[in-house]
């Protein structure tokens, strides 16, 4: 059996600020909070149910937001891609901007089908094409 992706860690200055942004962006919840560390993810059942699910197949990972003293200096080497499921890409970009995200320039041409954005601490992510009915078909 292969390993499972279970957590994504993101270093930041203010885990609570980013938890507010990312839980609203992804419709997730805060799963655990302690000084300097917040875990967020999809609402879940008991620890045993989660362990059984992880053992049987992939599950959505959680995200750990960890306080660090260093500033983000350059473009992320890894980033998240978000796909809207109930609105257009542009409507989702506007919603995320209202939550505190900004558009980011990482050298894209402007012809891309995605929009590069940054969370409130400058971590880049992309908003891809919409998967909503009427916007995406197989």
TrEMBL record:
CDD domains: VOC (cd06587)
Pfam families: Glyoxalase_6 (PF18029)
Domain Glyoxalase-like: 8-128
Coiled-coil parts of chain: none
Name listed for the protein in its UniProt record: VOC family protein
The organism's taxonomic lineage, starting at the top: Bacteria, Bacillati, Actinomycetota, Actinomycetes, Propionibacteriales
TM helices/strands, residue ranges: none
Domain of life of the organism encoding this protein: Bacteria
Originating species: Nocardioides ganghwensis
